[in-house]
Amino acid sequence: MPVMNLIDAIRFGLEQEMEMDERAIVLGEDVGVRGGVFGATRGLFERFGPERVIDTPLAESSIVGVAIGAALNGLRPLAEIQFADYIHPAMNQIINEAARIRYRTNGAFHCPVVIRAPFGGGVHGALYHSQSLEGLFYHVPGLKIVIPSSPHDARGLLRAAMEQDDPVLFFEHKRAYRLVKGEVPEESYSVPIGRAEVRREGTDATVIAYGLMLHLVLEAAERLSREEGIEVEVIDLRSILPLDKETVIASAKKTGRVLVVHEDNKTGGVGAELAAILAEEALFYLDAPVMRLTGPDAPAMPFNPVQEAAFMPNAYTIADRIRELVRY
C-alpha cells in the first residue's frame, strides 16, 4: 500500500474520480496548466484536457456559480477555492443556492457539488491565508462539511463527497498538506460522512478535534500517558456537519470529561455546539464542565511568528488544558 502525504492523497483521489466518472470536472483558479497553487491538480490538465480541467477567472462567486449550473445539468463538479479565506464572495452561491436547491424544488433538483478549500494557519499566511471558516458554514442546513486529518481519510472522504447528491464543503488544512503521511489503498474506497473515529482509547478524559489539531492532540495525549499516566481518549470528527453524536456521547459517558480543540474562533464554533449537545444528552455522566481550547476571538491571525504561535493551540497548551480538566 503506497504511503502518501495529505496533498498527494487528494491529487490521487481527484485523478481516480475523473477516471471513474467522465462527468467529473475540476474548476478553479490555476488548476489547469499550473496544477493548483499547492499542486493538488498537477497533471490533471495534461491527462484530461481543458474541457474537464478548467482554469477560471479570479472570481470565487463565479467558480461556485458555474459549478452549480454544471451540477444541475448532469456534471459532477470539483470546484477549488484557492484559499478558504477567499470563499466569502461565493457564500451567497453556497448558502442561498447550492444548499437550498433540493428544498426549494421539493426534491426535483439536486446539487452534487464538491467545493475544496485549503484553510488554517501555521504557514505564516497572515490575514488572508490563515483563516478557519468552518464555523461560518456550520449553521447552514443543506450542506455537508468534512475535514480530513489523514491521507487515508482524505481519499475516502473525497469518494464519499462525490457520492452525495447535495453540496459538500471539503476543507483541507494547509499545514497538514505535507506534514501528515500515511498509507492510502490503491483501489477506490469511501469513508462515510458523519462518522467519527476514535483515534486513541482512554479513560481519564475525552478530547475531540479534527484536521491539524487532531495530530497535536495525539501528541499531547501520548506525552501525558508516558510522563503522567493520564489516559486520554481522542476522537477525530472527520465530518463536522453532520456530527457523529453517538460516538461523542458514548465517549463522554465513558470518561466523564470532555475537551474540544479547534483552531477556529471560540464563539459560535463547533466546540460550542458539541458542548450544547453534551449538556442536553450526557449532562449527568459528566464530572466536569465541557471545556474548549480554540483560536481566540480575534479578527485574524497575525503574520508575526510569535503572535501566530500564540493564536494557534499547540501540544503544550492542549496538555495544560487536559490537566486542568482531569484535576477539576
UniProtKB/TrEMBL annotation:
SMART domains for this protein: Transket_pyr
Keyword check for Chloroplast: no
Keywords per UniProt: Oxidoreductase, Thiamine pyrophosphate
Alphabetical list of Pfam families matching this protein: Transket_pyr, Transketolase_C
GO molecular function: oxidoreductase activity
Domain Transketolase-like pyrimidine-binding: from-to ranges: 4-179
Record CDD domains: TPP_PYR_E1-PDHc-beta_like
Membrane spanning stretches: none
NCBIfam families attached to this UniProt entry: PRK09212.1
Listed name of the protein: 2-oxoisovalerate dehydrogenase
Species name: Limnochorda pilosa
